[in-house]
Amino acid sequence: MAGVKFEQAMARLEVIVGELEKGDLPLDESLKIFEEGIRLSRNCLKVLEEAERKVEVLVQDKNGKKQLRAFTSEDIDLKGSTEES
User: Fold this and answer.
1) Could you give the C-alpha distances from 10 to 32, 40, 52, 63, in angstroms and in order?
2) Dihedral, CA atoms, 70, 75, 76, 78, nearest 10 degrees?
3) Angle of helix 6-22 relative to helix 27-55, nearest 10 degrees?
4) DSSP-assigned states of every residue in the chain
5) Long-range contacts of 4-11 (CB under 8 A, 24+ apart)
6) Counting beta carbons within 10 angstroms of the beta carbon of residue 4, is it exposed (0 to 12), middle (13 to 18) or buried (19 or more)?
7) For 53-66, how does the pLDDT look when each residue is reduced to its tens digit (9 = 90+)?
8) Structure pTM?
9) What angle do CA 49, 84, 62 make, to 5 degrees?
10) How buried is 47 (Cβ within 10 angstroms: 0-12 exposed, 13-18 middle, 19+ buried)?
11) In the predicted model, is pLDDT for residue 68 greater than 80?
């Protein structure tokens, strides 16, 4: 499951939700795909959390205190590398 890309996992989750909403599956099959959905959703959450950590950058305020803020396009110089603060 670790090799599944985020977009693929989300697409599969949409299929799973659709199948479960129909209510046509036997209980054992419903439980099986529900468990798959839980694994996929946890994987997606992990990917999103990792992406969020990558986007946040540490900066220093006027007093030299470090604070967390969201990454912006201003943090990238013209060459595409991140600036060092």
Assistant:
1) 17, 8, 18, 43
2) 150
3) 150
4) -TTS-HHHHHHHHHHHHHHHHHT-S-HHHHHHHHHHHHHHHHHHHHHHHHHHHHHEEEEE-TTS-EEEEE--GGGB-TTSPBPP-
5) 4/40, 4/43, 6/44, 6/47, 6/48, 9/40, 9/43, 9/44, 9/47, 10/44
6) middle
7) 777 766 656 676 77
8) 0.63
9) 95
10) middle
11) no
pLDDT tens, residue by residue, 4-61: 799 999 999 999 999 999 999 999 999 999 999 999 999 999 999 888 777 776 665 6
Quick one: tokens of 9?
Answer: 């996992």
Residues 56 and 68 sit within 8 Å (Cβ to Cβ):
yes
- The domain locations on the chain are 6-75
Written as six digits, the tokens of 17 are: 């939700």
